[in-house]
Amino acid sequence: MNIEILFVLTLLLITIGLFIWDRIRMDMVAMMVVVVLAVSGIITPAETVSGFGQSLVVMIAGLFVVGEGLFRTGVAAAVGDWILRMGGQSERKLLLVLIPVVAGMSAVMSSTGAVALFIPVVLSICRSARLQPSKMLMPLSFASLIGGMMTLIGTPPNMVASTQLRAAGLEPFGFFDFTPIGGVILLFGCLYLVFIAPKLLPETGVREATHPHLKEFAQRYGIEDNLYRLRARKDSELVGKTVSDMRLRSRFEVTVFAIRRDGKLVSSLMPVLSETQIQSGDVLLAYGEAEGIERLCIETGCMFFGFPDDERTRMDKEFGVAEVMLHNRSPVIGKTIQEGRFRERYNLSVIGVLRDGKPLVTRFAGEPLQFGDTLLLAGGWRYIEALDDRQNFVMLETPAEMTETSARWGHAPIALTIMVAMLALMISGVMSSLSAILLAAVAMVLSGCINMNEAYRSLNASSLVLIAGMLPLALAMQKSGALDLIVSGLLALLGSSTPMLICAGLFVLTSVLSQFISNTATTVLIAPISIAIAQGLGMSPEPFMMTVAIAASTAFSTPIASPVNTLVLVPGNYRFIDFVKVGLPLQLMSMLITLTVTPLIFPF
Fold first, then answer.
1. Which helix (H) or strand (E) holds 444?
2. pLDDT 10s digits, 34-44
3. Which residue in 79, 85, 380, 395 has its CB near the most CB atoms, within 10 A?
């Protein structure tokens, strides 16, 4: 063992020790590794910083931007809503829906891409269901890695294994040759991630600590059961009239805050102002007491029909509320709601008033406002966001939904189209994954789904630095010969073993190496050795190669084992040891399944 090998192996052990110690940030440890390697001379200065220019790092940065576009336009929240409808508020049910979906995507596209796209979705789900992100994000990461095991294109190690068989003059693996083994691992892995892993994951607290949900605002102001939908019939007195003409609030104590026309909530673009005319067939979204709603329908010729949950969900995307307090200089003090002209001034409606901490429910139209009154204002999200620039109110609270909903909800079809086009380009091979991702990221900005400031803020610098900083260590292990030494030493112990023990040894060797260096590089190194062993024993190489390919994707036990683990490290607030506790049992389970199922499909 020469001095360079000893140096690199010592640096690797120290790095792992610092990660486990957890007193220094992981991205800082990665930068320390870069500096040490640059000074050591084992790799060139250019190679020490080459990780920052690696296509993998650039791809991840681009996917952060694409994911931000999906988040800002509400696509992530919509996907989260679908998963919530399927899984309800139960952590287990949500995981049972989420894991197969992510694994299925990872089977046909980059696992890193799938995780980057689903992180905002999972965070949205956690906010809505009040779950801890730490309980959801690591299962997300592991599901994507398992999904990559299931097809030829699911992960690079599968392609490497197939290519190595072809290079040896053998029949390469087919597209679905990996599916039986990967499918069994997914089945048992799903059960583990749903029923056991959450007990091992850390308690990091629920996101959304300060912002209540819209439903809580409704309960606080006593209006939870006072939302209605009314349809204006052709012969309705309201047709052709404005809200001000009909004096709905003063006559019926009813406030119309939105209109659905031709399937679209026009208030998202045109608020229901005093001059907004009602047309035949319009669906009016209103609040008021049941008595007032009934009188309005009878006297004006409207039809009442319910306010189902899906309509409330849609409304939450377009409309929201804000709680504001009147300060002593506010010009509306001493005036009624109508005299305060809230719709004309702020494009918002007053739907609730608290005085001395008690709700006035809906009978407050003629009540003069007082200093210290707290108002619940309703309207389009963009107008609620604009309240921060007003000097007449003290903003108290906005709902949690505001953090996951945007005034750019109308751009959601564009963002979704961009993402689907990106996936199509990646899967079809029309262009490289890097080109497709960069094209999608630029399209998100140019189309107005996000702006440049939001794009820059979306870049998770800690994750990018950690990935880029650890890549040179893998290169140093290869150039110094440390990797070859590890491989040759372990294989020397397996030379005279049975085929099953040799496969077990290959699995352990490949899996361990994949925790610290690229799984693709590991497969490239181990694959030809496994073929040589199989041929030396006069056996078929397929079971050995399949074992190596699957083992390379079991990068569960360290946050640096795979970019997908690194991506969830910061938003999940995980420590190094968390991956060891949850990932190691999953690795052992994957090994047992692989060693059991592989010989049944690919006999020795």
1. helix 433-446
2. 899 989 888 88
3. 380
